[in-house]
Design a protein that fits this description.
seven-stranded mixed β-sheet; four-stranded antiparallel β-sheet; mainly beta; 11 strands; 0% helix
Length: 115
């Protein structure tokens, strides 16, 4: 099982980016996929997650109303649409997946918010 996150980049404050987490390999019992982020000098924090079967969703308070998580079960991807980005959103974003009772992490993708 491998998870790959992509879509990061440089965006101006108020702009948007769409991150995607693609899962490959044999993925029995793919329970949920989540997004975390880590800014320099800060601890990694949870941003959003979605369960695979029933689509239950969680958002951190700091991103509610601005970020939207979605899943494409056919493509085995989970996307994070990030709107109204702020400087505080700048971080390396990681996705993870609970698959077959194990936690897998993808590599990070960097989001820079700067004018």
């Amino acid at each position: 099982v491998q998870l790959q996150a992509f879509g990061g980049g440089l965006v101006q404050p108020g702009g948007s980016l769409r991150l995607t987490c693609a899962t490959s390999g044999v993925t029995p019992d793919h329970y949920a996929t989540g997004w975390f982020r880590q800014a320099p000098g800060k601890e990694r924090e949870g941003v959003s997650c979605i369960t695979n079967d029933d689509g239950m969703i969680f958002y951190a308070d700091s991103v509610k109303g601005r970020f939207t998580i979605s899943r494409d079960k056919r493509k085995n991807t989970v996307s994070l649409q990030m709107n109204s980005l702020k400087a505080d959103d700048a971080a390396v974003y990681y996705c993870n997946g609970i698959i077959g009772g194990r936690l897998y992490w993808g590599q990070g993708t960097e989001v820079t918010v700067s004018s």
